[in-house]
Design brief:
This protein is α/β, with parallel strands linked by helices. Helix content is 45%, strand content 10%. Pfam families: PEP_mutase (PF13714).
């Protein structure tokens, strides 16, 4: 696989830069991408790093989200994105595309070899008993990920799905989230991602209670990046929302031309020449 003409920094340099971008009050903003073209568009708009969305990646490769994507396909996509951009890349690896800690370690080694300097790994369980993995079980998986890659080479963002899945009752959810965060950081996580939280009081409680940079999921209805920065958030992700919006354009465009025979949905599209130029020289 060729390397993009824009990708000049070493992997170590990119990893160091990516880690430094996690600063409480000055969040790293990640408009998540799902293929090379979306990654190049996001980079061209000035993003300091590229984050993949597991949902968008899975959909683009013909699979449903939720641990259903083949690991080799996922890693291949990371390699293509990393080769095409000059900024650090962090990969959403869902639960690690593996049933056990050893498999998680294999995934992490492959993703790092593909050029990623960060990962997201979640504690949601897509099969088996319970919506969430037990704390100890997930901590073992994070420890395996940490052992597979030196901290200087990989930023591990541990995702806690207590709020996204409405796990437990509201009164104990915060305590459970903080307990999980403590265990995951002790196991080797560098950052904590808690999607599903938008209430500023709760965000502030997490910022104060989590012993690592806090990542939140933003989108319509959430506080602005500026407001999240004021609360001390260190990382803001858009998750699958841009991919969802892109597929919404597909639906609207198809519906319009098939029903009315008109093309208004396509009026604000990126021009062919501009998009083609963004892909010239990208590694594929």
């Amino acid at each position: 696989m060729s390397i993009s003409h824009t990708q000049t920094a070493s992997s170590t340099d990119r990893a160091r830069l990516f880690r430094a971008l996690h600063e409480s009050g000055r969040p790293l903003v990640l408009p998540n991408a799902w293929d090379v073209a979306s990654a190049r568009v996001v980079e061209d708009e000035g993003a300091a790093a590229i984050a993949t969305t597991s949902a968008g990646v899975a959909w683009s490769l013909g699979a449903a989200d939720g641990g259903r994507l083949d690991r080799d396909l996922a890693v291949g996509l990371v390699a293509r994105v990393a080769a095409a951009v000059g900024v650090p890349v962090t990969a959403d690896i869902e639960g690690g595309y593996a049933d056990d800690p050893g498999g998680v370690a294999t995934t992490v080694r492959d993703v790092v070899a593909a050029g990623a300097v960060g990962i997201n790994i979640e504690d949601a369980r897509h099969s088996g008993p319970g919506a969430l993995r037990a704390v100890g079980e997930q901590a073992e998986r994070i420890a395996a990920a940490r052992e597979a890659a030196d901290p200087a080479a990989l930023f591990i963002n541990a995702r806690i799905d207590t709020y996204l899945l409405s796990s437990g009752d509201a009164e104990t959810r915060l305590a459970d989230t903080l307990s999980r965060a403590e265990a995951y950081v002790a196991a080797g996580a560098d950052g904590i991602f808690v999607p599903g939280v938008t209430d500023p009081v709760l965000v502030l409680a997490l910022v104060k209670g989590v012993g690592a940079p806090l990542n939140v999921l933003a989108g319509p209805g959430a506080r602005t990046v500026t407001e999240l920065a004021e609360l001390g958030v260190a990382r803001v992700s858009l998750g699958s929302s841009i991919a969802e919006a892109a597929y919404t354009v597909v639906r609207r465009g198809a519906r319009e031309v098939l029903t009315t025979g008109t093309y208004g949905t396509l009026a604000e599209a990126i021009g062919y020449g501009e998009l083609n130029d963004l892909l010239r020289g990208s590694g594929t």
